[in-house]
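Table S2 (text version). Query chain:
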Amino acid sequence: MKLLMKTVVLSCAVWMSASAVHGGTASASTPSADQSVKIQLNDQLIPFPEAQPYIDDKGQTFVPIRPVLESLGYQMDWEMENGQVEVTVKGDKQKTVELTTGVSEAKLNGKAVPLTSGALFRDGTVFVPVRFISESLGIMMQWDNDNRIAILCQDGQYHAPAWYAPPVVQALAAAPAPSVADRITDTAQNMLGIRYVWGGTTPSGFDCSGFVNYVFDQFGVDLPRTSRDMFHNSGQPVTELKKGDLVFFNIGRVTTHVGIYLGNDQFVSATTSRGTRIDSLTSSYWGPKYVGAKRIL
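Corresponding structure-token output:
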């Protein structure tokens, strides 16, 4: 297909077998009430007049692709031929993304990238993980766990939830606003599973200090580029840890790893083996390597 505009093209090969129609590999069961989730773009909720977004049993948030992309300012058309759904999205940048249901890998401009979950086709609707949309289009995303809202921050700014669950509404007047430390740790945890890239500083791939820099930069906090410089030249040393503190480790003879403390002896960091993940300060691997913490906030 030749377009006059630059386009983003997502090709989703859909298996229309009996298992796909009745909830097998290429489809998913109808989400129950406790699986429901809302999607927000900047300060506004995205309406879903037909199929609804949901969280699957693995904790992945799936969204109908059309309403989300149209809310982001893209125009989308799709057609099916020989079991293949081709989705064409008109945008302002040239990107090509290919997805196949049941395959934990996609191609971005021809380059293979890992996926925690693939595309689904159910009841005439193409569903994709909301994280796939945010990462492929370069949009920051935050997760509000209390109200079960995935917030797409297209303007690059942090946004409060546009909707509150009833129990939260009742206590809202007495509840304090989220602290910067809470927002930082929420943002960091929303980036779990991003692959490790040496020297990486964006959600397409992080190293440990690049991950910490990216998260803190979302809130206007500048840090040195390397973990060693962070340890020696930023913040105040602390022994009683709080959310948002930086924790440091020696892998070898010098400080070569940094993470963000989450509370309850847990921290999140970009690891070489499994990307961004949560670990325990007292684990058999990290415990002996821990060298201290710094308070930045």
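Notes on Table S2: The chain has seven helices and 22 strands. The chain has a mean pLDDT of 79.
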